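Me: I'm a chemist; would you kindly supply a protein sequence with its structure tokens?

Assistant:
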Amino acid sequence: MEYKTEIAQKLKKILETQTQEQIDEDWAAIIALGLTGPKISDIIECSEENNYVYSFKYNPCHYESDSKTVSIHFSEKGAIEAMEKHKEEKLKEHIEIYGEDWNEYTRFGEYECWFVEKTEILN
């Protein structure tokens, strides 16, 4: 049991500190090697109470693109906190570009989408 917890903590630390682009790049390098890793159930202790993860997803323009996973969390609260932090950062960027005098074309979040998705971990 300690082994699974240790790996889960390492995975959590990686997911909290790396950008989605870096994760995608690392994942592509692993796929290119033709390697396979452990199943998620080997890493995370699954039980009736703990067989879900919560993905925070973001879409910069819901008219032109699809949502990408920004981070994955063991709790819904953690995913929501990450989403709110991301939204605050995007608001700061928006204010730097458009100022605080918004009109119908520059309203914050008009074309963006933030949400949390609950996903079941299958054995």
Summary: The mean pLDDT is 82. Strands lie at 52-59, 68-73, 113-120. The radius of gyration is 17 Å.
